[in-house]
Amino acid sequence: MKFLFDLLPVVLFFAAFKLWDIYVATAAAIAATFAQVGWLKLTKRRVEPMLWASLGIIAVFGGATLLLQDETFIKWKPTVLYWLLGAVLAGAALLFRRNLIRSMLSEQVQLPEPVWSRLNWSWIGFFAFMGAANLYVAYNYSTDLWVNFKLFGGMGLMLAFVVVQALLLAKYVEEKQ
Question: Is the model's pTM score more than 0.85?
């Protein structure tokens, strides 16, 4: 259920774009993200840092898109989010010697230290790639194709990356009897 809740702004953006245009879609994504945060606050649940970051980025880049009537800003939003995530992971590792991937996953899986490090750096590389791929599609193809890539390409690449990671890590998972 959380997965669907997290995807709400992207799905509404996609639907609004297909029904209307990029500006209605941008407004829908901004409203949906504010609604997500509002709902979590209203129900006294924790708003994850990722959602706060997404809210800030969609408010700034989506707001600039609407204010200036320039779709370039909303096309930059996924790249900024991906690169911010990669920068946070890299910064934590390099500046604070903290592996945030291990912090999130260590209760689910036990891995040797070098594997945790490779996993962290593989996510950093993936986020760098995704940001660059988004810009490539945004600047070389139609807005319609970019919107499709944003939902289906981004989700497909993320799913493929997670599956490959799971297959590589499977040998470290011990079955509990």
Answer: yes
More confident residue, 137 or 107: 137
Q: Which long-range contacts (CB under 8 A, 24 or more apart) does 56-61 make?
A: 57/81, 57/84, 58/9, 58/29, 58/30, 58/33, 59/30, 59/33, 59/34
**Domain ranges across the chain:** 1-69, 71-177
Return the pLDDT at 106.
87
Nearest Cα neighbor of 134 from 51, 69, 76 is: 76
Burial level of 105, CB count in 10 A (0-12/13-18/19+)?
Answer: middle
Q: Is the pLDDT of residue 175 over 70?
A: no
